[in-house]
Amino acid sequence: MPKTEKEKPVADSVVLVSGGLDSAVTAAIAARLGHPAFLHVNYGQRTEARELAAFDALTGRYKIKNRLIADIAYLSDIGGSALTDRKIDVPKGDVGRKDIPPTYVPFRNANLLSIAISWAEALGAKAVFIGAVEEDSSGYPDCRREFFDAFEKAVALGTKPGAGISIITPLIHMRKSEIIKKGVELAAPMELTWSCYKDSDMACGNCDSCLLRLRGFKEAGITDPLEYKK
Amino acid sequence: MPKTEKEKPVADSVVLVSGGLDSAVTAAIAARLGHPAFLHVNYGQRTEARELAAFDALTGRYKIKNRLIADIAYLSDIGGSALTDRKIDVPKGDVGRKDIPPTYVPFRNANLLSIAISWAEALGAKAVFIGAVEEDSSGYPDCRREFFDAFEKAVALGTKPGAGISIITPLIHMRKSEIIKKGVELAAPMELTWSCYKDSDMACGNCDSCLLRLRGFKEAGITDPLEYKK
Q: Is A177 exposed, middle or buried (0-12, 13-18, 19+ CB in 10 A)?
């Protein structure tokens, strides 16, 4: 059948792909299950350009035709986080801390999910994948499955009858080391990912995100393909 | 006490101000109750510039110091609605229709609310006001209180403990004529508002939004300060 202008590539899911390790493994899971569309969101975070480069590399590797980059610079106008506000320092990592760290971006995941759900509804896709991790995360309230369950109920009520979009969090109860092992199992291209919150040339090795990643590779007994400053 | 650089104007609520009639009356209610911050969202809708002008006029009238304009052009990239996609016509109004009209923007209100909640959390405000109307609306699923209740539960779980942000929908069960009477009672500047979905120079008088507005003024026995093409 000849391709017409109206013919659009099929997508049965939308995956939020930040360009980090967790999103790459989530993308690998979605790609194994069907035909995902990849969504990347720029929100004025310090390492925006580096994360976008990782997203581009991942869409290329998975030959994704449905890709969307959403700019929501307003999150840095709103401020309140060390990730988007240059006046607040990214702290040296402390993965054992109990309080919510200054890298928390207020209600960020709801903003990301709302974009993903809007796109899924327009595409007719039935699932949104997000690589959030509950136990091994930094204590952000919007990374817990409890939050995603509540959001999913709002989705059921706020989309067209029959839209039936689920929020799938395949990594939610995994440790970083388990995610890395899953990545190896699925041949997820972990060398294309970027995790550092602070730097864009070479990972700092000191921020929460770098520390979690390094500890995960160590626990998994696998060598991290990225280089670090320290 | 001398003003320091760090001193920020207090805000106890965030109001979503599209620039339409309902949002102006909602803003009047919030201004009567406390010190609102005004949020406007551009989402690539046809009448974006005209709505922004109405927002500017309303912030001026209410002397609002905390104002934010968020651009989410991705909603028009996503498409799927006559409001954002120039290839889909805005239908002539049919306010008695039972199905969801082509002006529905997929999951739009969740995108707007997520921005408002993020900003409220950063400001320490305890309420978000949105001028959604359930019964007199066009059948959009994300305009029902049931949806806002579900979203509010997601907010409680996805923000910092103690953030305690409510979603207030003061017009949700009002008819357009009641909203207009409330606007007159509160001296809301209805002459500064813009409701038309289609045109920006003079309201078309034909789209759903114009028809609802015109019918509301007629039922209320009040003269609409705006001019119409027909």
A: middle
Burial of A91 (0-12, 13-18, 19+ CB in 10 A): middle
Cα(A156)–Cα(B147) distance, rounded to whole angstroms? 8
Alpha-carbon distance B27 to A178, whole Å?
A: 50
> Which residue's structure tokens are 């202008």?
A5
Q: What pTM was computed for the model?
A: 0.89
Which stretches of B62-166 are DSSP H helices?
Answer: 74-78, 108-123, 145-158
Q: What are the residue boundaries of the structural domains of chain A, listed by start? A: 13-220
Question: What ipTM was reported for this prediction?
Answer: 0.88
- Identify the DSSP state of B205: S
Check if A30 contacts B (Cβ < 8 Å): no
Q: Do B106 and A117 touch (CB under 8 A)?
A: yes
Comparing CB atoms, the residue among A70, A111, A144 nearest residue B114 is A111
Size of interface A-B (CB pairs under 8 A): 147
B86-111 pLDDT tens trace: 666 666 666 666 667 666 789 999 99
CATH 1.10.540.10 is held by the domain A13-220: no
Q: Quick one: tokens of B85?
A: 């996609």
